[in-house]
From TrEMBL:
An example Gene Ontology molecular-function term: FMN binding
Name this polypeptide is given: Flavin reductase family protein
Any matching Pfam family: Flavin_Reduct
PANTHER family: BLR2425 PROTEIN, FLAVIN REDUCTASE LIKE DOMAIN-CONTAINING PROTEIN
InterPro entries documented for this protein: Flavin_Rdtase-like_dom, Split_barrel_FMN-bd
Amino acid sequence: MFYTPDQGHGLPHNPFNAIVAPRPIGWISTRDAEGHDNLAPYSFFNAVAYVPPQVMFASTSAKPDRDGTKDSVANIRETGVFCVNIVGEALSDAMNRTSGPWPREVDEFTDAGIAKADCETIACSRVSEAPAALECRLTQIVELPGKANFVVFGEVTGIHMRDDCLRDGLFDPAAYRPLARMGYQDYTVVRDTISLKRPE
């Protein structure tokens, strides 16, 4: 099968995000200028640089009360900071709950029963039980072609790691089994890893 996106695929559901899979989930916590916390998952997320460490996530839809975007991007525009919380298998149900289209005044931490902790380098809450959390300062927001498509880039200013995820001096994903997005309504859990030595 071949199709061009402008002509359509003719399938029951768009296959694009199932083709680019699995995708790590950035569980983005933000705080608006008035001090209200927000938490939402984004599967267009990744690390993009080592030195200084930098990450990105993309928001691709909008809410009517947020001027062409969603709460996360709107809050980051106001405050210039955000936190990326890493999602393990044990937090999958809570993560899914925070993906709902809740009004801007809803605190997803409270709604989903998620414990908060304060960040150290930015004024923002983080998921206290997350295997890791990356405190970030905004570097730029890039508007992409299409409606409500924004990529948010941030420099990591602080890193939290749960002690039980450190094994022999390494941060071990097997300790928390990362959750990843497969497309449609499907997810996967990373349980198996292989090691490949780079050629000299």
